[in-house]
Structure formats: C-alpha cells, structure tokens
Amino acid sequence: ESYFQFSEEKKRLFQAFRTATDDDPGPASRMHWPDLDDWSYSPFESVRSGDFLDVFGTYLREVQVRTCSALLELQIFSEPGSRKGIYRIRGMGRLVGVVRALRSRLRRKADFTRAWARGDLLRMMDKILSETGYLQPGLAFAIYQKRT
Asked: What is the three-state SS of the chain?
C-alpha cells in the first residue's frame, strides 16, 4: 500500500494472528502502525506503491507476475506498542540487550519449535492471501513486455 497505510482488514488479520499465536497476549502484542501524522520515513518512500501493478498492467503486457508478502511485511513495519517507550529511559537499551542475550541462551527447544511453527503458519497464510488477491501484496516480482 502507498505510504504503508495498510488496509483495516490486513491489520485486523495480522493482529488476530499475533493474538492467537502469542504465548503471552497483552500490551506487547498490540501494534503501533505507521501513521501519516507521525511519519518517520523518507517523504519519497512508498509514495505510489499501491499503483505499480495497475499502471504496469495498463501500459505493458504481463508475461509473469508473482506476488507475496501480504502479511509478512507487517512484521517489518510495525513495532510492539508497549515496548516503544522503554528505550527512552537512559541505559535501558543496553539492559534490554543483555536480558535478551541471556534469555536466548536459556531458551528451550520447545520454544524454538513453537516459534518456527508460528513462522510457517504465517508464511502459509501470507501465500494464500497474496495469491488469491484477498489482500494487497507487499512485494511483486514481475516480467513485462512492451505492447505491440
């Protein structure tokens, strides 16, 4: 979507997935979405992204178009809402890093397996939603030819 302004349906599905698969649903699972009023990206980034496939399809002949990342991209552009403020406290960033390192060393194999399964489920959902056209894709790989 242009300016990363994701549809309400896309955000709702992603949030439902996060809530259903999160071991500890709570404030950390709520997401902070990019907002045009509080924009932290380049003003030239993703200006007309939502129009690319339609424009190329209008003026060029599609040879092959593959879309993906209807939901996967949301993990990149969203951040947990409750953790956002913790890094503003002096020294907390380093402390959080140490705690994360210790936690990763102590992580059990079952936790890793659950996280892997969550990722596989998200990738499968993403593929279905992208390929059926139910949600607008985040990425497209395409080959076009000049119309004759």
From this structure: CHHHCCCHHHHHHHHHHHHHHCCCCCHHHCEECCCHHHCCCCCCCCCCHHHHHHHHHHHEEEEEEEEECCCHHHHHHCEECCCHHHHHCCCHHHHHHHHHHHHHHHCCHHHHHHHHHHHHHHHHHHHHHHHCCCCCCCEEEEEEEECC
